[in-house]
Write a structure and sequence with these properties.
Blueprint (H helix, E strand, L loop, with lengths): L1 E10 L15 E11 L8 E11 L8 E5 L2 H18 L1
Antiparallel strand pairs: 1-2, 2-3, 3-4
């Protein structure tokens, strides 16, 4: 059994992530998470299979985007760095 979750994240400063050619510009982005249910447990649990970050395609119209597979831990670290930078400047 699969579970799909979408959420929005916001970067207030440029952020770099492995595998991306350029820094992610400040803005709000959609993150899609795919998980599968772990069978055979006495409680409900899921295993994360993939985390995708949806970024706009440069030079294309509004609504055009490209999906990038990202490491969820790296994404969390980038968000923490962004929050720390915001706290230092704000």
């Amino acid at each position: 059994m699969m579970r799909h979750t979408s959420l929005e994240i916001t970067f207030r400063h440029p952020a770099s992530l492995k595998g991306l050619e350029r820094a992610v510009a400040p803005g709000t982005y959609r993150v899609d998470i795919e998980e599968e249910r772990i069978e055979g447990l006495s409680f409900l649990a899921y295993r994360r299979l993939a985390t995708f970050l949806r970024l706009p395609l440069p030079g294309h119209g509004a609504g055009s985007s490209q999906v990038h597979l990202v490491d969820p831990k790296e994404l969390e670290q980038a968000l923490a760095r962004d929050a720390a930078a915001e706290a230092a400047t704000g």
